[in-house]
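The record is kept unedited without comment:

——
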Amino acid sequence: MSQQLASLESEVGQELLQRKGRRVWLTSAGELLVEHADAVLAELDRAEARLAAFGAGELGQVTIAAFASAITNVVAPAIAALRGSAPGVTVLVRDAEGQESLPMLLDGEIDIAITMHTGHTPTEHRIVWDVLYSEPFDAVLPPGHPLLDRSEVAIADLTAEDWVVPLPGNPCRDVLLAACAAAGFTPRVTHTSDDFTAQAALVAAGVGVALIPRTALRAISGCRGIPVTPDPPHRRVVTATRRGRETHPLLLVVRKALSEISI
């Protein structure tokens, strides 16, 4: 111990202890060093506590990319719930349409992607999927349309219409085209937009018809969707995480909060 003390005194360039017989006490420099040592130990204790909280999924930051209606109906309510159940968890949100979020996920830009699962993703083996919800597409018809007062509409009844659809590459477009093909026709696409509010505005302007997911319709004021019969097209909305990170405590906490939101 005396060698360690001598080494410490040599390192700090100050005498740390005074001795008189068997009595030993701290010098002013020694007291100052102990004060700083206490502060360092307190910081180490705080760091240990924060690391333990991080390991338990109680502290940290998670970045989610999702399309607009999922942000509105799932992500925002989950963040509100986490503020009560896990106040140390910070969720950052990025808007990403269609499959845009998957490259961001695989490149490590985000932690969780919320997207549609089509089952045809080339990087399927690198991703862990969890279903959040499945929802139907409803038909949106322009003012004065002869089918507007119906409680249900068949896609085959819209064969001769102009269509407002998402852009190529958007999985919602793929669902729409597949539903029309199953009804025996190829839609006459005249307008395109990935924004469902914009699609509804174009329909309201009388330029065509559209199929819009039911949750997206909730956020569009004055827009009425008509259920499709007999087999309405659906989209399956999922969370995606990189394989190997799905059991990270922080991601488990956030994924659980997302899964508990009712649609």
